[in-house]
Amino acid sequence: MTTATLHKGRTIGIGGWIGAGILTVVVAATVLAPWITGDPLEQHLEILLQAPSAAHPFGTDDLGRDLLTRTIHGGRTALTISVMSAVLASVLGLSLALAGALFGGWVDAISGRLADVQLAVPSIVLAIVVLSFVGNSFGPIVLVLVLGSWVLTFRVVRGHARAVIEQQYVEAARVAGAGRAAIAWRHLIPSVLPLLAVAFTLNASYALLLESSLGYLGLGVQPPQPDWGQMVAAGQAQIFTAPWIAFFPGLAVVVTSLGLQLLGDGLAERFTGGPVTRRGTK
Amino acid sequence: MASVLSPPLPRTFRLPVSGRYLGGRLLTGLVAVWGAITLVFFALYSTGNPALLLVPPDAPPDEVERLTRVLGFDRPIPEQYVTFLGTVLTGRFPDSIRYGENPLPIALEKVPASLALGATGLLIGTLLGGLIGYWSATARSSWLRRGPLGVAVAFESVPTFFIGILLVLVFAVNLGWFPATNGRGLPGLVLPAVTLALAFIPAIARVFRTALLDVLQAEHIRTARAKGLPHHLLVRRHVVANALGTTLNVVGIQAGVMLGGAVVTESVFGWPGIGQLSINAVQNRDYPLVIVCVLVIAAGFVLINLLVDVLAALVEPRLRS
């Protein structure tokens, strides 16, 4: 069913390309930030709380810092944490799903049970416990995001891997003497790669939303290091006098997340013939 | 014989959900609460001496020592664990650093405000989300099928705190209709409730749509259509009722995500509920209060799940297993 011949001529669609375009711009801007913008902490006390203008397209904040610069630099924090969490969550979800499919029995039962546990512990509770007791530095934040999102990849990959392992060619490989590692490497992983790409974009989008929420709540990385969620929280105090301070960093989160979701939907369309990973839109 | 002595109760008197089903769910819930307590215990323990966290930063060393002894932090870990469970069961937590008294009543006091906000948000979210899902599955006009769902799905890319900020920008800053933060009474409830609702709507709309489409393909629907039942009656009588159980079940699974949305919403609007209290407690490093808040939220989460399960079993007999 999901063989390459059926997919000939299919593309990721307009939405997918728009998503890819958005992400390219966002990633390029954040990676090149030190070269294309100034210092995000530089203060200019003569231009406090200026509305967006040609010189400062996003305006300035209460310390006269340029918000475009800060927003671009804020993306470095938000994207580094989100992408790293998404990579780790994908690896964790993939490993557990493949182990469950390959070994079956109690391995499968335990990995399934772990996914249930994840649902029983709301991310916000986990975040409060870990970040308040262990501290809110890079490592614990990534840990919270990974624990909160690995199940996304796990569910997507698990169903597919279970179906593939039942296929005759896998049976044939087993009869021919291939071990579990060989079956995983030769047959399972190539088969789940497209799904993994889709799951990764979902994971990254979820991690970004959660990361910015933690930043907003003051549980994320600490000032003065700029971070989108934290910048929105700081801007809220001046929402009546300088609404742009809270608006632009938040908009950056929305645009990036939208880019990830559009790309994810496009990839799903391209590889699986429909957004199988998202309930309700089949 | 037995039936003569105690004639079977009329059908209407029977509990719609079996006690066994309820008991099983309650047990699962208790295991979840126990898990939360254990998580807190190990997080506390991972910091070294938990007593240092539970006293004010300026406390004299003998106070730290006293608390270490009273709470048994100088005992072996298994014994500490039992002591901690005992603390939770008796409700005698160490004093809140900020308020200087038992944090449990402080946290419980905030629950009604959270419930009011949660219930209002859930009501608006369910009605709107249900309507959008209903349109997207059954509407004849393709605009009504795709438009509202598309907008709802796009909202999944907007973090809850930013939905709140945007509503504040439009309705408090520009139009001045509602208070921006710290609002009381009905006007103060509107923006937080709508924010919370917007966090629910995409999930509810999606799930309800899928459930409706699944039911629409069932054979009894084809039969009803064949006998000439008008479309609107068909959908109302046969489709919606059959789609409710699945929807409730998935909403129950998503309850954790919604809980996060509720905590964020309370923080955005300064709503005096348990979510805001817990975030403030974290920021003030008031660890006794953090522990209590986490446990109250976990218990509330379990109760909500239980309620959803019972409701799902009420509307969907197939789930009563």
From TrEMBL, chain A:
The keyword Cell membrane applies. InterPro entries: BP-dependent_transpt_permease (IPR050366), MetI-like (IPR000515), MetI-like_sf (IPR035906). Residues 75-264 form the ABC transmembrane type-1 domain. One of its GO terms (cellular component) is plasma membrane. The keyword Transmembrane helix applies. This is Peptide/nickel transport system permease protein. It comes from the Bacteria. It holds the Pfam family BPD_transp_1. PROSITE patterns: ABC_TM1 (PS50928). Belongs to the binding-protein-dependent transport system permease family. Its main location: membrane. Keywords: Cell membrane, Membrane, Transmembrane, Transmembrane helix, Transport. It is a multi-pass membrane protein. Signal peptide: none annotated. It is found in: Cell membrane. GO terms for biological process: transmembrane transport. The chain crosses the membrane at residues 12-36, 78-103, 115-134, 140-157, 188-209, 244-263.
Automatic annotation (TrEMBL), chain B:
It is found in: Cell membrane. InterPro entries: BPD_transp_1_N, MetI-like, MetI-like_sf. It comes from Actinoplanes lutulentus. GO terms for molecular function: dipeptide transmembrane transporter activity. Pfam families: BPD_transp_1 (PF00528), BPD_transp_1_N (PF19300). Belongs to the binding-protein-dependent transport system permease family. This is Peptide/nickel transport system permease protein. Keywords: Cell membrane, Membrane, Transmembrane, Transmembrane helix, Transport. GO terms for cellular component: plasma membrane. The chain crosses the membrane at residues 21-45, 113-137, 149-177, 189-208, 289-315. Residues 111-308 form the ABC transmembrane type-1 domain. It is a multi-pass membrane protein.
